Amino acid sequence: MQERQTTPIHATRTRRDMIVAAACGAVVVAMVGMSYAAVPLYNWFCRATGFGGTTQVATAAPAEVLDRRITVRFDANVGGGLPWRFAPEHNAIDVRLGEVVTVVYTVVNLSARETVGMAAYNVAPLTVGSYFQKINCFCFTEQRLKPGERLDMTVVFYVDPALAKDSDQDDLNTLTLSYTFYPVREPQRGVAQSAGTSAAGRL
Questions:
Q1: CATH superfamily of 56-183
Q2: Is the distance from CB of 128 to CB of 163 less than 8 angstroms?
Q3: Does the pTM exceed 0.85?
């Protein structure tokens, strides 16, 4: 039998198809990678710029305290599926720019079972997030409460004196710090693990 010869046209098409397939594969891999990186990159961007009312994290008090005062309001919310009562000790306080302040939020588990929650936060107006400096906070940390348990949580913060140099904020008199607790779903034990635990309990 006579071997089938590969024509130049056929070879060109094969090479083109391989290039297209490789390019499509690279695009899929890149899109998957970007989807995993989108959330941490967005969080980093918000923390670095204060975008979306994201506050900043400070390690020490500022060097100066100004006479200018601003009212800080405190908001507390609980997401669906979390049987907690969550409230600030004070609805609002007046602070001077650069003054370090400690406020208390209280949460109570109203259910008859142990539950776990985690808080997220933001500051409004959204444009002042970069001036709200937190030294200590309970956000993004799992809080585990037993039935009926009450927990007092503190937030230590100051409003950056640099706010006074921002002409866009000359008319700003009030800002709001808002927290929302969301339920944390704990992983369910597998059937084999549950059976093993039950068997161990009968020994």
A1: Ctag/Cox11 (2.60.370.10)
A2: yes
A3: no
